[in-house]
Amino acid sequence: MDLPAGAARRLLCPALLLLLLPPLLPPPPPANARLAAAADPPGGPPGHGAERILAVPVRTDAQGRLLSHVVSAATARAGVRARRAAPVRTPSFPGGNEEDPGSHLFYNVTVFGRDLHLRLRPNARLVAPGATMEWQSETGTTRVEPLLGSCLYVGDVAGLAEASSVALSNCDGLAGLIRMEEEEFFIEPLEKGLAAQEAEQGRVHVVYRRPPKSPPLVGPQALDTGASLGNLDSLSRALGVLEERVNSSRRRARRHAADDDYNIEVLLGVDDSVVQFHGKEHVQKYLLTLMNIVNEIYHDESLGAHINVVLVRIILLSYGKSMSLIEIGNPSQSLENVCRWAYLQQKPDADHDEYHDHAIFLTRQDFGPSGMQGYAPVTGMCHPVRSCTLNHEDGFSSAFVVAHETGHVLGMEHDGQGNRCGDEVRLGSIMAPLVQAAFHRFHWSRCSQQELSRYLHSYDCLRDDPFAHDWPALPQLPGLHYSMNEQCRFDFGLGYMMCTAFRTFDPCKQLWCSHPDNPYFCKTKKGPPLDGTMCAPGKLRPGMVAHACYPSTLGGRG
């Protein structure tokens, strides 16, 4: 029996190396249970077939005059003083913050014979106030630290303002992407952790130039659409989710965003395969840079809407939990597992700073057939269970997969499948069935813009502004960055930890430390831990207010 017109579009919208659906398809699941899959983006991570050179970027003023060899924010904050040039008026550039021109940064770097003058402004709306990063261990314990996004920047290349974009972090050297005209570059420090040497001799970076994109290979693979996620709705019922929560306006203690502004507050789930590949020391910087790029993709004017992608929480999963969520070769079950996990991480209080609208899950495990890079429910945004995506992480080009899958959750279809935008696929449209967008050429098709506008106003959860609280933000106290054990190590040396042999003292009033070799011999500096230290369950060491405790959920209302 022939399928009715549009039946393929109502199914999973598979996108693999061969963009053909099987000739015989099972009955389509309910429309609100549709899924979408994205295929492998061309190119792969930087360095896979890319040319590379060494470069030493320098910090300059707005006119390109040398200020310092120091490019890392951490080094500058540590007291390395830059040589000051004569005062000049900072010229404006697209997207710049005219109210605070002093927040702009300028760098010169020579790449493949071209002298580039980078003009950057802070991306102050990527990490929400009170956002946290959680490390989950095999033993079930969780280490929580504040998520700081103060070294993330976006901008352009001088002289190419309309044909370039830059998304970099300067936490430890410069890391990120530079795209201009028909070229794209990725820059990162040659070696990590050498920021202290920058002041005298600069910092050597590696710059990769991606080769011209080759046409994608085609093969016989096609997604078996039989295992659909129609059971996400039954999962909702099993978890006791009331449908009224989906479209009801959350009464949150935040001011609403401007009428034309939308904020997708994101829980970023990261499995152990990603952490191991990038390293525990560098994974946070990598994730922030990746999401900085995703945010820039959603800021492209072709989208026709003002959408911010805002991180409220990152969770790094243990090995065991990671393996339990991803079923190799079973994308439907893997996505269901991920969506269930994300729902269970949700904060019960909608006023909480870490309450998320949407979950993005990254893995390097092969959850689907060869070439599958993403999987997501269509039009699931704001739903407690279905607002989630599963993404194969494969370097910074994965930003386009994340943007593509989130586009499906916002209601966008594949270009050329059920709409008349197939002509835009070869031009690098984000929602192409085979993700061919690249850093030097990408846009949202006219169909994506129309489909987004059809649904966007119904997503009430995107209307509040996480940066516009009605209460003052808590100060960044020094103890927020160091645990009790770390402070013991600073005070008494390697191996020292908080003394747990005796329970007769209040750790919030006096810090006692001991060594594992002699745990009953406890030492103290006769002082409390640093202000802001998590010193007891649900308590932080008070700051300026005597005998007060901040909620352990920083910035929350609970």
TrEMBL record:
The segment annotated Disordered runs over 32-51
Protein's cellular compartments: Secreted
Gene Ontology MF terms in the entry: metalloendopeptidase activity; zinc ion binding
Signal peptide stretch:
1-26
Q: Which terms are listed as keywords in the entry?
A: Disulfide bond, Glycoprotein, Hydrolase, Metal-binding, Metalloprotease, Protease, Repeat, Secreted, Signal, Zinc, Zymogen
Gene Ontology CC, one term: extracellular region
Q: Does the keyword Secreted apply?
A: yes
The chain positions of domain Peptidase M12B read 262-466
Q: Does the keyword Lipoprotein apply?
A: no
Give the residues the record marks as binding Zn(2+).
Answer: H404, H408, H414
Q: Which domain of life is it from?
A: Eukaryota
Q: Can you name this protein?
A: ADAM metallopeptidase with thrombospondin type 1 motif 2
The species is Papio anubis (Olive baboon)
By which gene is this protein encoded? Answer: ADAMTS2
